[in-house]
Specification:
By secondary structure, the chain is an alpha+beta fold. The chain is built from 14 helices and 10 strands.
Length: 478
């Protein structure tokens, strides 16, 4: 499966538009037909996902485009015209929930353009597309568009090219992808900020909506598995959802929220092992890079064991993501966004956040002079809960809450660093106990020393980090 990260700009143009003189060489003119697929209720369109089969010169290619921040990830796979390849259908399961993918539009494009270069190499492909929207053999409407796709340049190059195109007559684009224009669809409206005066449930719904959208956005990338950040962001969204529902428990139906949080906990239990191993392997590989070559080769044997463990954990995760249980959870989350089961609507979000902060203060004060690793980890969890409750109340509490959230993140990151170091040391000791060899043992010993220094540094910074957070908490919540 070919993979490309696209960063592009689209402008509108009329039929008379001609590209200005740009440094580079002309691209070969092309004619291709694209058949777009979606569910009958446009679930892919709703989430900014594009699936199409492009035919050019008698050869077909399936293309899947997934949102990736300001860019899009394009995956390409060969396959017949009867239905989308199974590998692509699997990546889209969270969006389709098993619904059939059917043709929804057919576009024929004529493309001409230039590959813009400078002395260091290609910068961007600039093309003019003349598009016919087909209904059977009839042309229902025509579209004209100028597209700039970066191939080696940066944002500055993109802006220079844009200025040249606008000077030649190009204008702001329609703002919608070709498929939206072809079908006469409007993009789903982006949720705006919730008014501080809104009801507490409206703040909760907005927060839940953002995290459910993030969970779905990062699900295909998690399944694809080439970018560990996708799994990380999916796990973060899952954790935030669970924490938000916990913080809002006083306003919600107890049985309903408990059932939903249980299922989110299950999802976390299948995402967590893979993510934890990603973090561990990346850190140990980075640390091992500074070892001497013989020690580094010896330590690779231990990393190989972790890689095998990760492969097994990933297989378990993918099985869970294909399960009916997971699809039911997604349905439940979308229901929760639309209509959370509220039983106490007039609760104070400020009081909820203040309550979580008080619990955190009590937990920190209960720590002895030399808290155990388990006690610090428990305080870290308390810190997360206080942070997420503050995020729920941020719109109503204002800047004091925002400042508290920033300090809470620093507190959480510090204790996360401590926990990662503790786990890394423990795992190194476990792994080295199962292999023989002096070099392996020596390399492992050196890395254990580094993990110990790492968690000791986190402990040394704990008091000051907590003091800053406590000050912000008192100003925000008391």
């Amino acid at each position: 499966m070919k993979e490309t990260l696209e960063r592009e700009l689209k402008l509108s143009a009329d039929r008379a538009f001609r590209l200005p003189k740009l440094p580079g060489q002309p691209l070969e003119s092309r004619i291709f037909t694209s058949t777009y697929y979606d569910t009958a209720d446009f679930r892919l369109v709703r989430y900014g996902v594009t699936l199409r089969r492009r035919v050019e010169r008698g050869r077909g290619l399936w293309q899947l485009k997934l949102p990736r921040g300001p860019a899009r990830l394009e995956l390409e796979l060969r396959g017949g015209p009867s239905r989308p390849p199974e590998a692509l259908r699997d990546l889209l399961l969270a969006h389709t929930r098993g619904r059939d993918l059917v043709p929804i539009a057919k576009l024929r494009s004529r493309r001409a353009g230039v590959r813009v270069r400078d002395v260091e190499g290609p910068l961007a492909d600039v093309v003019v597309d003349s598009v016919a929207v087909l209904e059977g053999r009839r042309v229902a409407r025509r579209l004209h568009e100028v597209e700039v796709e970066l191939t080696g340049g940066d944002e500055k190059a993109l802006r220079r090219i844009e200025r040249a195109l606008r000077a030649a007559g190009a204008a702001d684009g329609d703002g919608r992808p070709k498929l939206f224009q072809a079908l006469g669809l409007e993009p789903p409206p982006s949720p705006g900020p919730v008014s501080p005066a809104a009801f507490p449930v409206d703040h909760l719904k907005a927060m839940l909506q953002g995290q459910v959208a993030a969970l779905l956005a990062h699900d295909p990338g998690t399944r694809h598995g080439t970018d560990p950040e996708e799994l990380h962001q999916m796990r973060v969204a899952n954790r935030r959802l669970r924490a938000l529902l916990r913080a809002a428990r006083p306003m919600l139906d107890p049985e309903w929220v408990a059932a939903l949080r249980t299922e989110l906990g299950w999802l976390g239990s299948v995402l967590g092992p893979v993510r934890d191993l990603d973090v561990l392997v990346a850190h140990l590989r980075s640390e091992a890079a500074s070892l001497d070559a013989p020690e580094r080769r010896a330590f690779e044997r231990l990393l190989g064991r972790l890689a095998a463990e990760r492969a097994e954990a990933r297989a378990t995760m993918l099985e869970a993501l294909r399960s009916e249980r997971y699809l039911r959870l997604l349905d439940g989350l979308e229901d929760a966004v639309r209509e959370p089961r509220v039983v106490t609507p007039d609760i104070s979000l400020h009081d909820l956040a203040a309550g979580e902060f008080k619990k955190l203060r009590r937990a920190v004060r209960a720590l002895g002079d030399e808290p155990s690793d388990e006690e610090l980890h428990a305080v870290r969890i308390r810190g997360k809960r206080a942070r997420y409750a503050a995020e729920l109340a941020e719109a109503t509490a204002g800047k004091p809450a925002s400042r508290f959230i920033r300090r809470a993140k620093a507190f959480q990151d510090l204790l996360g660093e401590h926990q990662d170091a503790v786990v890394a040391e423990e795992r190194i000791r476990q792994l080295v106990s199962r292999v023989r060899g002096l070099r392996t043992a020596f390399a492992a010993g050196r890395l254990v020393e580094r993990q110990r220094a790492r968690w000791q540094a986190a402990r040394a910074a704990f008091a000051e980090t907590w003091e800053r957070l406590e000050q912000r908490g008192r100003r925000a919540w008391t």
